[in-house]
Specification:
Layout lengths: L10 H9 L9 H10 L4 E5 L2 E4 H17 L7 E4 L5 H12 L3 E4 L6 H11 L3 E5 L9 H9 L5 E5 L6 E2 H6 L15 E6 L9 E5 H14 L7 E4 L6 H5 L2 H8 L2 E4 L5 H11 L3 E4 L1 H10 L12 E5 L5 H11 L2 E8 L2 E5 L6 H6 L3 E2 L5 E5 L11 E7 L11 H7 L6 E9 L5 E6 L3 E4 L2 E4 H9 L4 E11 L3 E10 L6 H7 L2 H10 L10 E4 L13 H17 L1
Parallel strand pairs: 1-11, 3-4, 3-5, 5-6, 6-7, 10-11, 10-12, 12-13, 13-14, 24-25
Antiparallel strand pairs: 1-2, 8-9, 14-15, 15-16, 17-18, 18-19, 19-20, 21-22, 23-24
The protein binds 5'-O-[(R)-(benzoyloxy)(hydroxy)phosphoryl]adenosine.
């Protein structure tokens, strides 16, 4: 049997997680099998006019699994999937699990550069896209992928243009007879996307055992049941929306996932009213928009009992407004695609919910808060967050050098987050040391954008830093040192005008959210003692420029 290579947990840890009942030895397809048996007529997914029962979700994913097996897809293969928030997202996810094909779910906002990078790393046999995305609106990108990935056998498109294979046809195909078998529970089920801090986006292998545990535990903490109606208005593949407790948590509990194309408040409020949504998950910037839109529309939100907020820092002042102005309880969620997820609990005192990002979901999560020398700091002091546990990965996919940097010898993963831990174990996120910008919950690896800018013939040096933004929390600012020569100073400045630089980046195929919000031309970049760009100093320089500009 061919499996996907990944860094396993050490045997003693794995045994402990099995004996404690964290790891059940069951594939995640068990979630669907159980609901199909006990709750077949229950509505699993509501999307637009469509409602998909558990029985249908099971039947459709089985049909697709058969159609894919018939085309030679088999256990140990991988797939690159990019679908918007539609029912097919979850149908495809379960179909692939059923035949042991491990997908990575790219964000719908990803463009050529990101998808190509994932395809290079994963070497998928299957790519699934959507015709509503510019990349799959014609066959050109599929042809590029075939050139990059020699083993790529099939590109299926939902709403396919002429000449491409229509995913919907396979979903309708009858008569498959292959015996379906997911990969063993201890093997890779799928890949999560890392927010990243390096030049190439990294993939996170997640096993059935570890992910299913995080789903069950999350559903328990959030008290999901068959009456739960969960609004999924952020990307369905993101760890928050998939497993914290997300759609899989809702499926596990037999509730309904209501899919929304975006968190835009008016559209979401209408869906909430129509479907009697009881719970939603948002990033802080979306909450701010909901708070703005809520006055006069409170009646539409009457069914909502719980709002989860996570993905980026949530200002206490905003948090305090949630119960009063949206009429529901608040839960803060601090998680990561790599594993560890912290929740404030539903019966926590108000202050905890407003001022902390919760505590680890599992008693088996191990958390250390350390100083720069790796020494534990006392409770209440600021430090770097390290963690290991039953659903925290042990290594990025095929990235030994990076793994050597972010894991210590005991298997603790350095999250790159700066936190304070209270005596009760609750964590408050106070900053980060990883070179990443958190733009309203969307993560931008500074190095990735810097590398793209450095390809520009007129750019000598480039550094991307965060700048505070009232709605997004942070936005990105690219600091550029121009390459001298080749014309007058005015020519150089002209060639480096922000619209031209953005156009240049766009042409390289990078996702729109990674385009710098601001550009600053500088004569030099501040350096640290070892000669690297000093980002702390640079952020201060940029902040100074912003203030001067605001005052001018
Ligand atoms: C979630 O996952 P990712 O992988 O997109 O991003 C993880 C990073 C964390 O390391 C932290 O830097 C930041 O996002 N973050 C937060 C936060 N939640 C995540 N920073 C401050 N406050 C929070 N509440 O973002 C994610 C995964 C699962 C559940 C929720 C969020």
């Amino acid at each position: 049997m061919s499996g996907i290579d990944f860094t396993r947990w050490p045997e003693d840890a794995a045994r402990r997680y099995r004996e404690a009942g964290c790891w059940l030895g069951l594939p995640m397809t068990d979630i669907l099998a159980r609901q199909c048996r006990d709750n077949g007529d229950g509505i699993a997914i509501a999307c637009g006019e469509r409602q998909v029962t558990y029985r249908e979700l099971d039947a459709r994913s089985t049909r697709l699994a058969h159609a894919l097996a018939l085309r030679g897809l088999a256990r140990g293969d991988t797939a690159l999937v990019q679908l918007p928030n539609v029912a097919e997202f979850h149908i495809v996810f379960f179909a692939l699990l059923k035949i042991g094909v491990a997908p990575v779910n790219a964000l719908f906002s990803h463009q050529r550069l990101e998808l190509t990078a994932y395809a290079r790393q994963l070497q998928p046999r299957l790519v699934i896209g959507a015709g509503v995305h510019p990349l799959f609106a014609d066959g050109a990108f599929a042809a590029t992928l075939h050139a990059e990935v020699p083993g790529l056998a099939h590109v299926l498109v939902l709403g396919a243009p002429a000449g491409a294979t229509e995913l919907a046809d396979l979903l309708m195909e009858e008569g498959g007879t292959a015996v379906l078998a997911p990969s063993p529970a201890s093997e890779v089920a799928f890949f999560q996307l890392s927010g990243g801090s390096t030049g190439t986006p990294k993939l996170i292998p997640r096993t059935h055992d570890d992910y299913y545990y995080s789903v069950r535990r999350s559903a328990e903490i959030c008290r999901l049941d068959t009456t739960t109606r969960f609004l999924c208005a952020l990307p369905a593949g993101h760890n928050f929306l998939l497993s914290s407790p997300g759609a899989l948590g809702v499926f596990h509990a037999g509730g309904t996932v209501v899919l929304a194309p975006s968190p835009e408040p008016l559209g979401c409020f209408a869906l909430i009213e129509r479907h009697g949504v009881t719970m939603a998950a948002l990033v802080p910037s979306a909450v701010a928009l909901w708070l703005q839109a809520a006055p006069g529309r409170r009646a539409q939100l009457a069914s909502v009992r719980l709002l989860q907020v996570g993905g980026a820092s949530f200002a206490e002042a905003l948090a305090r407004r949630v119960p009063e102005e949206l009429g529901c309880a608040l839960q803060q969620v601090f998680g990561m695609a790599e594993g560890l997820v912290n929740y404030t609990r539903l019966d926590d005192p108000e202050d905890k919910v407003y001022t902390t990002q919760g505590r680890p979901m599992s008693p088996f999560d191990e958390v250390r808060v350390v100083d720069l020398d790796g020494q534990d700091v006392p409770d209440g002091a600021e430090g770097l967050l390290l963690t290991r546990g039953p659903y925290t990965f042990r290594g990025y996919y095929r990235a030994p050098e990076h793994n050597a940097q972010v894991f210590d010898t005991e298997g603790y993963y350095a999250t790159g987050d700066l936190v304070r831990r209270g005596v009760d174990g609750y964590l408050t996120v106070v900053g980060r040391v990883k070179d990443q910008i958190n733009r309203g919950g969307e993560k931008i690896a500074a190095e990735e954008v810097e590398n793209l800018l450095l390809r520009h013939p007129r750019v000598l040096q480039a550094a991307l830093v965060s700048v505070p933004h009232p709605l997004l929390g942070e936005m990105s600012c690219a600091c550029i040192v121009a390459r001298p020569g080749g014309g007058t100073a005015a020519d150089v400045t002209d060639a480096l005008r922000p619209p031209l630089l953005r156009k240049y980046l766009r042409e390289q195929g990078v996702a729109e959210f990674k385009l710098p919000d601001r550009f600053r031309m500088l004569d030099t970049l501040p350096l640290t003692a070892v000669g690297k760009t000093d980002k702390v100093a640079l952020r201060a320089v940029v902040a100074g420029l912003e203030t001067n500009q605001a005052a001018a």
